[in-house]
Design brief:
Strand order of the largest sheet: 8-9-10-7-11
Radius of gyration: 36 Å
Number of strands: 14
Shape: globular
Largest sheet: 5 strands, parallel
Structural class: mainly alpha
Distance between the termini: 61 Å
Number of helices: 44
Length: 986
């Protein structure tokens, strides 16, 4: 193209070499898989009038062969050429020759030919990619074949030979479209072979609607639905197909389709398995997950003999379960791992291992563990069910007939263990816990006590070295005695001594003899565990010890360097130095670069140290306050970046710690979602103390975490804790704000009754506290709730008040939000013009303020209103823009809700296939409003399916929708019942 972006003219020709490049090596390219176009490098060449493009297409599709003038006349006009057809062909050829580089369009033998490289034409490239895909598939590389087919299909840009006239172009257009469909079917077949059936459903739904008589597509859709757990819909597709073929062609479905229906009716297990996944009977996965055996394992001879004999006899009449119990640090895991390694020959089919984290506040969920075990045993992700009961059943079935040892470490209780136990003989389970599993039926219980003095001294000697211990035997006995004979304590002490060659055993013994450096209780419960860690803690420098104590106070799975620096009130580089030195002592673990964590028992010990050693005690509260300040200040900056001009940040509690700054919105969102678990744990921890108000404000500033759907449960738990504390201490300001955050959680989940219960308390609390901010949100949210419950007059009252209060506070984004919600209300009452005007006002406000995420909410509202007004193209334009923004901001539930509105727009526009595809995408993503919105999505999907003749599948959708609507008298339920009635009598 020229500098002004226009096509290259005749006076701008470049000399082209025989291989199709100009003097600078720029390649000449043509396309027919879409509009007929030509380029030289990145510059577009003018291809002229439609007839001229038809001539160019005819020459391109001959792949360099000469076309006579007569053949070209037939191609352009068929049996009815104009009187000056030959002159017209020559004119078109002359014009093309002027545009194309010299030597490309040549005259020979009374006709014309195009000389270009084979890869100059997009069709040639597509054919080559398809051929390579076929070779890859034949060689067994399905993933590569699928990728190549996607590249080939990606070369299409709409309809082939678009807007090119003439009979030749029409014939070629039909041929290329058929080839494109064949490639698509092959690629979809590969999708299913590779286990991508859930993703394929929406595309196949749209394709079967566009090509209803193409039985291969119907077959693929049935298979994709069946493998997605949607057996009823798969059978409904067959019923719809059979009826359609009978009505349109008077024939039955082909035998392959009937055979597939029979296999689905029989719930054929082989049919549910993707081709890529080998059948378990043919390929056996042999997991070997045991942690490394410690080379210096010592003692426990009687336990090794007793438990070893039980494991060796696991092929008897019952499945063997052995449970080791004891205090933390007593060596349960070390003994269990040693036993498991010794027993490996008796379990040739593999060994499974998991740390159940039962000693901490967040024990591993059995369903999560079962998912990991099933994957280790060869079960693909797509075949792993969702519920605990189904996973447990599949796990037991997978273990049937195999000899596998399962090591369940650090269990919380018997309830956590039961779903993880094998169910057949030949397998065995070995578990450890701090509690005795007296309620675990059939388990062989073993209480593991501390080591004997002889065993303890032997372990100490193996680590330190015989020479050093022999010369100071008495001091060595003093050391192991001071450790309470706990194996973990002995190992820590011995390892430190081994690393310090200048120390003698007596030096270590003297340090341990100072009881002021140890806890008084060494023989029972957690105190023995704490005494074990006293060794390491006693060797720390003051700065290290302070960091160890204070960081142990923090809830959360781990902590970032920046957050740790806030707790310690240190610059990040100084905090990093201290933390890395603690990692060297093994008291702190490095979870990832820049992130640190405690073992659960070490955290408990660190907190006891803080309670004992941190002076003045107010220092503990100050450390947690700095952390809360850090999270609140940083979350407020994320909020401000996401919502410029929103006044909420001006009404948050002041902070003494400034928090992090971000260069752009993406960095801010990365921080928010990375820190989500820790941030919410901090909010919940702070909600129980003097920092309640800051904790509530942190939840409000991080409201995106509730709306994304990823952290809703943890967010709700923190908000509930804050509300209960605020109510108990009669802090009306905190309670009003906590109820505001809870209202938002319940709205997102579609729990409108609970949302209304929270929201109705907000305004009285806020007025009593003279806190104006929640009043706007209370009215705004109560307006939404009333709208969703059909109380339109009440909804309008609340929303108008929300607009008024936001204007009084100069809260422009709040005003826009209320306007958009009022737009939805007007739309529900059939006042479409008013709804469009209100949504446009919201867009104007957001646009003026440079907002992005909230602008997407306004576009969503406008798109819905435009759909109702029958302006479908404009509606889809707004909804598409909203979708892109929600995706960039990781608002998955809003993505799904926007797909739902797009489905409504397509359905109203008569584009039923696209409506069905969008509805499927909405179901896959989930929606704001929980089951209430899901029922509406299923209703729309059913309408779309019925419109394309898939009545049985539509009925399945509507029945599911009806089951989700709690109130049978609700308008949604009445609508769906009405839709089902004609079908049930048909």
């Amino acid at each position: 193209m020229d500098r002004d972006g226009g096509p290259r003219g005749a006076d701008q020709q470049a000399q082209v070499t025989p291989d199709g490049t100009d003097e600078a090596g720029t390649a000449l390219r043509f396309s027919v898989l879409g509009p007929v176009r030509a380029w030289l490098g990145s510059d577009g060449l003018s291809t002229g009038s439609p007839q001229q493009r038809a001539l160019l297409a005819a020459l391109l599709l001959r792949e360099g062969r000469t076309a006579t003038a007569g053949e070209l006349i037939d191609a352009l006009w068929g049996d009815d050429p104009p009187s000056q057809a030959l002159a017209a062909v020559r004119t078109y050829a002359s014009r093309l020759r002027k545009v194309l580089p010299p030597g490309v369009l040549v005259s020979e033998s009374g006709g014309y030919a195009l000389r270009a490289r084979p890869d100059a034409l997009d069709l040639g490239v597509a054919q080559e990619l398809a051929a390579d895909a076929e070779k890859s598939r034949a060689a067994g590389d399905r993933s590569q074949a699928r990728a190549l087919l996607n590249k080939s299909l990606g070369l299409w840009d709409g309809e082939a030979l678009a807007s090119v006239p003439g009979p030749y172009a029409e014939t070629q257009r039909t041929r290329l479209e058929e080839w494109r469909l064949q490639l698509t079917e092959t690629r979809l077949d590969l999708d299913l072979e590779l286990g991508c059936h859930a993703e394929a459903v929406s595309e196949l739904t749209a394709l079967t609607a566009a090509h209803p008589l193409r039985e291969r597509l119907r077959e693929l859709l049935m298979l994709a639905l069946y493998r997605s757990g949607r057996q009823a819909e798969a059978l409904a597709v067959y019923a719809d197909t059979r009826r359609l073929l009978a009505d349109e062609l008077g024939v039955d479905p082909r035998p392959e389709l009937a055979k597939l229906q029979h296999r689905i009716l029989q719930a054929d297990a082989e049919l549910a398995r993707p081709v890529e996944e080998p059948a378990p009977v043919h390929t056996v996965m042999r997991p070997a997950q045991l942690p490394a055996n410690v080379p210096d394992f010592t003692g426990r001879a009687s336990f090794v003999r007793e438990l070893g004999d039980r494991l060796a006899a696991a092929d008897g009449s019952v499945m063997a379960v052995s449970a080791l119990a004891g205090i933390g640090g007593v060596g349960k895991t070390t003994l269990a791992v040693h036993l498991a390694h010794e027993a490996r020959p008796h379990f040739p089919d593999g060994q499974l291992y998991v740390d159940l984290m039962g000693a901490g506040p967040r024990a591993a969920e059995p369903e999560t563990v079962l998912g990991a075990f099933l994957r280790a045993l060869g079960t693909p992700d797509t075949a792993i069910p969702d519920t605990l009961e189904e996973r447990s059943a599949l796990y037991r079935s997978t273990l049937d007939g195999r000899r596998i040892l399962v090591l369940l470490d650090n269990a919380r209780d018997a309830a956590q263990i039961r779903p993880l136990l094998p169910g057949t003989t030949g397998c065995a389970a070995l578990l450890t816990s701090r509690v005795r599993m007296v309620d675990l039926a059939g388990a062989h219980l073993v209480d593991l006590d501390v080591m004997s003095p002889e065993e303890a001294l032997q372990l100490f000697t193996r680590i330190v070295g015989e020479e050093r211990v022999t010369s100071e035997r008495k001091a060595a006995l003093d050391v192991v005695g001071a450790c309470g004979f706990l194996p973990l304590a002995i190992r820590i002490a011995a390892s430190r001594l081994a690393a310090r060659r200048t120390w003698t055993v007596s030096v270590l013994a003297a340090k341990l003899a100072d009881e002021r450096r140890r806890l008084d209780e060494l023989q029972a419960g957690d105190l023995a565990v704490k005494a074990t860690f006293e060794l390491g803690y006693g060797q720390l420098e003051p700065a290290q010890a302070r960091a160890f104590r204070l960081l142990g106070l923090v809830d959360g799975p781990d902590i970032s360097l920046a957050a740790a620096a806030a707790v310690l009130d240190l610059p990040q580089h100084a905090a990093e130095d201290v933390l890395e030195s603690l990692v060297d002592t093994s008291l702190v673990e490095s979870a990832a670069p820049g992130r640190y964590r405690y073992h659960d028992l070490v955290r408990l010990y660190a907190r006891s140290c803080a309670e004992r050693d941190e002076h003045p005690p107010a220092g503990r509260e100050a450390a947690l306050s700095r952390l809360l300040d850090f999270y609140l200040a940083t979350a407020a900056k994320v909020y401000a970046i996401e919502r410029p001009g929103d006044r909420l940040v001006d009404h948050l509690e002041p902070t003494a710690y400034e928090g992090l700054s971000f260069e752009d919105r993406h960095d801010a969102l990365d921080w928010l979602y990375t820190e989500a678990d820790c941030l919410l744990a901090c909010a919940q921890q702070g909600s129980r103390g003097a920092q309640l108000r800051k904790s509530v404000d942190l939840l409000w500033a991080a409201k995106d975490l509730a709306e994304s759907g990823a952290n809703s449960k943890q967010y709700e738990s923190a908000a509930l804790s804050a509300r209960e504390t605020a109510h108990a201490i009669e802090d009306k300001r905190a309670e009003g704000r906590a109820r505001t955050t809870l209202t938002n959680v319940y709205l997102v989940a579609g729990r409108y009754i609970e949302a209304d219960e929270e929201a109705r308390h907000i305004a009285p609390l806020a007025q009593a506290a003279q806190d104006s901010v929640p009043i706007f949100w209370a009215d705004n949210d109560r307006g939404i709730i009333a709208l969703m419950q059909g109380r339109y007059a009440e909804a309008e009252t609340h929303l108008l008040r929300a607009i008024e209060s936001s204007r009084a506070d100069r809260n422009r984004p709040g005003e826009a939000s209320a306007l958009c919600n009022l737009s939805r209300l007007q739309m529900s009452q059939g006042r479409t013009d008013r709804a469009i005007a209100l949504a446009q006002q919201g867009i104007d406000i957001y646009d003026q303020m440079g907002l992005t995420l909230r602008l997407a909410n306004a576009r969503y509202a406008l798109g819905a209103a435009l759909t109702q007004a029958g302006q479908h193209a404009e509606a889809l334009e707004q909804l598409n823009e909203a979708l892109v923004t929600f995706r960039k901001n990781r608002q998955r539930l809003w993505e799904g809700t926007t797909y739902f509105r797009m489905a409504e727009a397509h359905l109203a526009a008569g584009q039923q296939a696209q409506a069905a595809q969008n509805a499927e995408q909405a179901l896959a993503f989930g929606c704001i409003g929980g089951d209430h919105t899901r029922a509406r999505v299923l209703t729309v999907l059913g309408r779309a399916l019925k419109s394309i003749g898939e009545n049985d599948r539509a009925r399945v959708c509507w029945r599911e929708a009806l089951a989700l609507v709690a109130d049978e008298t609700a308008p949604e339920a009445v609508e769906v019942s009405g839709l089902l009635s004609p079908l049930s009598t048909a």
